[in-house]
Backbone:
């Protein structure tokens, strides 16, 4: 843990005005007032389209900026992280704080961010930063490799099918109801995939899966505790393989998945802590990181230990 004097730096805030059905933009006025009252020096960068957060963070880092704030939801955090890690700079010199103005806000749950934004700003002023692990997924398809970085959780199989439905067939509901409705719909359309999973600790799985999770932090999908033993600075991914399950069995374990107890109750679940892993199949299958769909293909995962200084409220 490292303490940083927040007031000694100018913070470049990347605000995603589309986060949380555009409520993020409406929330910004009160946040700006809080920052001014607490003498936090900042510059605001508004992003409105997918990918613009990546471009903005990358450009800022390439121009010498080292103090960034992701203001939005988990997708915004993911874009800022990807901008930092594709900028060609030493990421251990970069400091990132988060203003959780999004919908699910899953990453902040592991770090015990307060729910009230006023308390988040006060925690930011305290300046407790940790050296956070970062994951990298390489999707291999059509002879090419497509990279995506993540700071929370990567999901493959059912997890990604839900995100696909949210993205391509959004129901006319608001908030987390969108995710929950897509989760139920995907239960009936999801087809288990026969895959091979291998990790460096002589871990091998070959068979049909419900989903595979590669976790740095613990929560995903609007508060589902998918990986309760994940630690964001232990230098390891928590790789969780959940085998094929029937719909009744999935429904039976839904409550366990919310609390994290499924890790101990689902029969046949396999877990390993690893620095690298490969997920392959004879047919293309979906993957996602922090709600962002990956290019379908075979996947290679690797862990970049202690690669970014990140604000935490867990002391």
Residues:
């Amino acid at each position: 843990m490292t303490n940083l004097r927040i007031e000694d730096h100018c913070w470049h805030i990347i605000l995603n005005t589309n986060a949380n059905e555009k409520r993020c933009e409406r929330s910004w006025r009160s946040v700006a007032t809080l920052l001014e009252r607490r003498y936090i020096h900042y510059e605001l960068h508004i992003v409105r389209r997918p990918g613009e957060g990546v471009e903005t963070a990358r450009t800022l880092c390439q121009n010498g900026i080292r103090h960034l704030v992701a203001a939005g939801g988990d997708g915004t955090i993911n874009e800022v992280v990807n901008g930092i890690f594709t900028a060609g700079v030493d990421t251990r010199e970069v400091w990132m704080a988060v203003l959780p103005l999004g919908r699910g806000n899953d990453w902040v749950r592991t770090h015990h961010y307060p729910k009230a934004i006023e308390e988040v700003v006060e925690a930011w002023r305290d300046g407790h930063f940790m050296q956070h692990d970062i994951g990298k997924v390489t999707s291999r398809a059509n002879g090419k490799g497509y990279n995506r970085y993540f700071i929370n959780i990567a999901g493959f199989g059912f997890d990604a099918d839900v995100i696909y439905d949210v993205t391509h067939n959004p129901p006319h509901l608001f908030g987390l109801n969108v995710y929950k409705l897509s989760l139920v719909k995907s239960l009936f359309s999801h087809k288990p995939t026969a895959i091979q999973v291998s990790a460096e600790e002589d871990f091998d799985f070959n068979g049909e899966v419900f989903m595979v999770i590669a976790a740095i932090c613990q929560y995903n999908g609007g508060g589902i505790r998918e990986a309760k033993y994940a630690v964001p600075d232990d230098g390891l991914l928590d790789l969780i393989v959940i085998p094929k399950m029937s719909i009744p069995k999935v429904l039976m374990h839904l409550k366990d998945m919310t609390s994290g107890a499924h890790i101990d109750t689902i029969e046949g679940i396999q877990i390993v802590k690893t620095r690298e892993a490969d997920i392959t199949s004879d047919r293309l299958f979906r993957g996602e990181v922090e709600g962002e769909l990956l290019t379908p293909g075979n996947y290679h995962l690797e862990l970049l230990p202690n690669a970014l200084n990140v604000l935490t409220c867990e002391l």
User: Anything to note?
Assistant: The mean pLDDT is 89. The longest strand covers residues 128-141.
